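Data availability (excerpt). The following record was deposited with the supplementary files.
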Amino acid sequence: MKLARSLALLGLSTALAGSQALAADYFVQAITPGAVSGTPLAVITLQSGGESAPSTGVPPVRVVAKQSERIGKWVKVRKEKGSEETSPEIVTTDETAAPEASDMSGSDGNAEVASSGDAGLSEGGALIDSEGTTEGSTALGESATAAADTTADTPAPTPTTTTTAPVTTAPATTPTTTTTAPVPTAPTTNLVAPASTSGVAVPPGAQIWKNFDSLMTSGKVTGGDRIFLLDGYHGQILVRDKKFTSTVTIAPAAGAVAHADSVLVMNSSNVHIQGLKVWPRSSNAGNGALVRTYSSASNIAFTGLDVRGIATAGNYSSWTATDWNNYQRTGFQVDGPNITVARNRVTGIFNGIIMLGKNALLEANIVDGFSGDGMRALGDNSVVRGNKVQNCHQVNGSHTDAFQAWTNGPTGKVGTGTLRNVTIEDNKIFEFVGTRSPIACKLQGISLFAGVYDNFVIRNNVISTTAYHGITIAGGQNSQIVNNTVVHAFGTAGVYPWIRVSANRDGRPSLNVTVANNMTTSLKVNQDATKAIVATNNVVVTNASNEFAGVSKQDFNLRSGSKGVDAGIPALAPKDDIVGAARPKGKAPDAGAYENF
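Predicted structure:
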């Protein structure tokens, strides 16, 4: 069903071509239609104990989904271009009607998943109507496999049928007007994640494609189009060699739960994938990344995905070390410029989210239950904002980090390059929440060890861990560490976790680094005027119960008698705190991530 709408750029820095465009809705049948099987997930919000949802700033995941209801509505229908032939890859229902916009059930990474089994369907070159009935018996093989780390940028299998879809005639419409968004420049704190798109119910007369691959190889999809996936299992979602001029959205249809083994984007631009359930069905799926882009991809966004190492990842609290090693998969591994990973939930995973390209935005994600690193960002001009990382597990000899970044020099050697213009703000890092696992890790917070880190801003983060490094920058230059709360997870006073500034591994010193307005268990910063290393207005926490509302409940709001109240220096404080409250409320800004008094 061809529709016209205003082409919102979704914050992807898309370069639009032409002054006017027409857009289309496509609907795709699942390989195996029916209910998606997976354990329900516990409700987790981006808020901590004692917090209310912010009125400004980054909304919690569920609020984002509600706000999106008014965004990106399609308003008219028009006559399609194309032939009037029929195709074994699609079907047109009996009547023609304009679709009605409604919520997509898959738009929220926190949404619970039905635990019923998959419904069966005979597959093949059969016509499928909107009721899901079939005729014909030609079998189609499944191509659903998890994208492994060793996957090369090589040609994908070609579907056996690539016929052109027929057309449903509809009234004409006025072409839409396009808008252009500026490309972000450093500093990149103005990067904005795309809003969720409202789903469309399958209208009478709609064309339903047999599977995702047949639609993508048909040549029908162009910039501004939307692809809606119906209930059930869709195999691997592969987008290859698609350089769209404006954003193409791939999402569940209204009320649908769409499941994929993996998502892979190669040599493509301007794609927004949202609201899918992503985990491997096979127990032998390998240990690669479940959502993957390569350096040939650009302007790609992933929002509202529910990504798990296995369908039953909601039960990770009962896993043994053997289980964790068996499910040692990465949630997201994305490369290429201008990639957004926002408002997703990653559960029961090895590494949570790995961002390799420049101008990356990693925002408002939840990584819950992991055994490697929670997040990484290795590209210049990137933002890591408003995420929650919690519940790490120790299953091998490697150290676990909530966030880690390193550099690669001209020859590719680790630690010999420079990483520039990165903002890490408003994140919550909790080693463990609730009943502590016997194999809980000792988590490191923000770890910057290998290389030079130039123009880093680390602010308004809460870190509750038991390992040494709360925030460590080794080889920092022209950087700030301000208004963070770094506290031992048990409230214990001592020498760690610390905030530390030091030389990097090859001896290059830190230069022009300011550490101010923090509350921390320990401070390891040697002030040095010749190197412009400054530490001021920091509060060392010796009795956490006197300072914070509830350490055991991850509530790091300040008590009225806290040493952190009005302890900050105004010139160095961010204008608002971790939940968007304006600074200062009192005579001076509070130290730490929260502005309370």
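Summary of structural features: The chain has two domains: 1-11+20-34+72-180+193-280, 390-597.
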